[in-house]
Amino acid sequence: MSVLKTVICGDILDFVEDPAKGQDTSYRYFSPGVLVIEDGIVQQAGLEADILPALLAESSDYQIQRYDNKLIIPGMIDTHVHLPQTEMIGAYGEQLLTWLTEYAFPTEKKFSDEDYAREISKRFLDELLRNGTTSALVFCTVHPESVNAFFKESQARRLRMIAGKVMMDRNCPEDLSDCPETSYDDSRTLIEKWHNVDRLSYAVTPRFAPTSTPEQLQKCGKLLEEYPDVYMHTHLSENGDEIDWVKQLFPEAKDYLGVYEDAGLVKKRSVFAHAIHLSDREMETLACNHASIAHCPTSNLFLGSGLFNLARCEKHDINVGLGTDVGAGTSFSLLQTSSEAYKIQQLQKHKMSAFKGLYLATLGGARALDLEGTIGNFLPGCEADFVVLDDHATPFLKFRLPHTETLHERLFAIMILGDDRCIQETFIMGESVHKRDL
Ligand code: GUN
Ligand code: ZN
User: Fold this and answer.
1) Whole-angstrom distance between the N-terminal and C-terminal Cα of the chain?
2) Which atom of ligand 1 is nearest to the CA of 305?
3) Domains of the chain
C-alpha cells in the first residue's frame, strides 16, 4: 500500500520545553515553515527553504497544502472535561456543592441511555474539534453505557481520548450511586474492552473524595495495581466547603490529598482537577509522585472557587495542563481558557506569557497526561494532530493583528481575543476533520 505523504506549509509553532524554564529555548517557530507527515505521523518540521526543495527532489509523492501566513500549532489538549455536562454549561448562581446537586447530578441521570450518550458524545466531540481540541481526559457518568458511547464515537473519529466511568457510592442521588464491588467490576470490564484500543485509554474515575467511601477508593487503588498504565482522574481541593467536608468524612487522613494517597491513587498518570488550596505537603507529594494537575480557570471563576497558584507549581516542578471543566467551565475553547488563566495569574501578580498559555494548552497537557512524544508537539514520531489558526477571523481581529509586531504580541492577542472563530481547520492524524464555515 502506498504511504500517504503530506507537506503542510505555514507558520509552524510548537513547544519543546516549559517557557518557565527559559522562554527563548522553549519553542520552535518556522516561518515560513513546513510540517512533513507520512501516514498520520510527523516526520519533521522546519523552515520551508531548508526542507521543501530537497524533499521534492527526492520524491514527487508529496501532497502539498498551503496555509501561507497562518499559524499551525499542535492540536490542543483538554486535561479535564465532563461529557454529560455539555448541555448545562452556564447554570446560574451556585458554588460547587449546590451546583452539583442542583444542576450536574440531574443532567447526568440521562446517560443511562446509551443512545442518548452517543448523541451527546457526537455533539461534544464536534465542539472539541471546532475549538481545536484534539485530545481530552474526560469524565463520563456512573453508567458504563456513557463510556461505551463515548469511546465508540471517539474510535470512529480516530481520536486520542482518555475517559472513564464515574465511581461514586455515597452522598449522591440513589440512581447515580454504585457500590464498591459493582464499580470495580464495571470499571474492570471497561478497561478490558477499551484500554489501549486504537488511540483510546482508560481512566479510573472516582468523582471526588466526598462521594466515595474508603472501601470504594481502595477498589480504585486495586484497579491501578492490576492495570498499572491506566490513568486515575479525580477532583482535588477545589472549594472551601468541600475541603471542610472531606476533613469530616476522613478524619484520619493527613489532608485532602492524603485521602487519595491512603488508597494508592497518587502516582504518575494521576490527574487532579483544580488543586487550588493545597498545603506545601500536598504540593511536594504531587511532585515526588509525578502526579499532574488540571488547571481549570473558567470553572474556578464561574463557581467562585479560588485563584490557582501557577508559580507554586513551577517552583515544585509539577506538571500542569489546562482543563475547560465544562460544564462548570464556561467555554470549550482552550484559547479562552488560557486567557482566563492569564487573568487569574494577574490577580496574584504573576505574569503568564502567551508562550506559557500555548505551552499549557499543548505540550503541558501532553506532559500532564504522560503523552509527551505521542502528542503535544511536532517532534518526529508524534501523531499529526494539529490546528490551523486564523488570526484575522473577525473584522476586529483583522484590524487588531496588523498592530502586533513580535511573535509574542501576535500570540498574546490571539490568546486574549481568540476563540472558536480562530480555528480555521483541525487535523487528526494528518487528515482534515473540521473546516470552519466562512
Ligand atoms: N467535584 C466533584 N464533581 C465535580 C464536577 O462535576 N465539577 C466540578 N467542577 N467539581 C466537581
Ligand atoms: Zn470537573
Assistant:
1) 36
2) 9
3) 5-74+377-435 (2.30.40.10), 76-368 (3.20.20.140)
